[in-house]
Amino acid sequence: MSDSFESILDESISALQAGVPIEEILAETPEYATELRPLLYAATVLADPNPRLLPEERKSALRAEYMKQVADLPAITTPTLNEKAQAIFRIIKRRLNRKAVLSDLVTVTITIILTLFMAVLILTYVARDTLPGDFLYGFQRASENVQFSLTFNEAQRAVLADQFNQRRLAEIEQLIEQNRAAIVQFRGILETKGENLWIIEGRTIFLPTDVILAGQPQEGDEVEVIGLLRTNNVLVADTIKVIE
What we know:
By secondary structure, the chain is an alpha/beta fold. Helices cover 56% and strands 16% of the residues. A five-stranded mixed β-barrel has the order 1-2-3-6-5.
């Protein structure tokens, strides 16, 4: 039922209540006469202050007229599949205008951004206590790299780098306590340089014959170590690089 029909129905009922005959009301809106007639007859019956006092002849006439008008209304049929498809197509067509598409696009974009932001926050919180070899450890390192990349002050970058390195050293200690093997990475001062055993940042590092040495590490140099911490607490170096 459209808004215009509802407005006309309200006006017609108001006129009926004011005493205007039904036929005069219908004459003012001939295009809606078929729909209005049974409704106005029903309103006449319902509006009677004491319907028991209504003469039987009038009630019978109103009932007969109402039923006649109801019978004249078009039958309600079940829409076919084609009609349903056309209705859906019309709805989609109304939505496929520039304003609606842009509105939907903005809504979807904002929803995706907020969802990703919340996911990052949750994963960052969950991954903060992970160790090398844990499922979310890579996410912890990635969040550190992002944080470091977004820091442009050199002094603050140096502080961050030291914080992250202290975290790497603490992770090694936890792995040793738990007797776990994992790939580890840290920075430190080369304190003692032997033939195949070096001491870096107080930790003994075993150098296999295929170790990769970047630069010419000397005692006193700051180096970066990537290696395998075995379950027997032996740290086998894979790469040792001098930090310039």
